Every structure is written in C-alpha cells, then in structure tokens.
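Study this fold:
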Amino acid sequence: QLQLVESGGGLVQPGGSLRLSCAASGFTLDYYAIGWFRQAPGKEREGVSCISSSDESTYYADSVKGRFTISRDNAKSTVYLQMNSQKPEGPDVYYCAAGPPYCPLVAATDWYDYWGQGTQVTVSS
C-alpha cells in the first residue's frame, strides 16, 4: 500500500523552529517531486514548498522564503521541511504530496498523485 506519513508537527512559539518529515512506505520517493502544503481551518490548501526529483530544485512560497528549507534523503525515502523563524499561525495542517518528477510552476494540488494525512502546526505564545 502506497502511503505518505507526515510527522514533526506541534506547538511552537513565534520565532521558534520545527522540522516536519514526510516518509514514504510502499514505494520509493526517488522519482517523485515532493510538495508541502498547508491548510488553515476554513481556507484552501496552499502550496508552501516543493523539491524536484531530477535535480533537487527547490521552490518556496513568498511567505516562507528565507525561513523554510526543504530537503530530501532518498535513501530514507523521506523529505524534510525545516521551518525557522516561525510566525504566529494555526492551527494549520501541513500535508506532503508526491507527484511527477519536477515541481510545477504554480503550486497546484491536482499536480500530485499521493497525499499524506497531515500533521498539525500551531505557532503561538
């Protein structure tokens, strides 16, 4: 069974850091681009970051540039999202998704084939 499982969410104070993980089971992530999305209650899911399979190009939403870093470890079939200098938000649910080998020009949920169940992130004092 093909699965993506996110972990690492929680409560963090503004200015703090969290690292999210997206682990694949039942398949290897080597040939997939991996995107991270977040969704606030009552709002649409928005793209946060993406890392391609081929050359590991990375893309970030303007709102997180300079603060978030996406990386992948294909040997572990895991992609990470390091989130630093967190701004107040949440509770948001962060999702990872696997799709074709290169990241789309515009973050679009229908680009991706597989989705995880999400992990919740709250940034609050």
Summary: The chain has a mean pLDDT of 94. The radius of gyration is 13 Å. The CA atoms of residues 45 and 109 lie 8 Å apart.
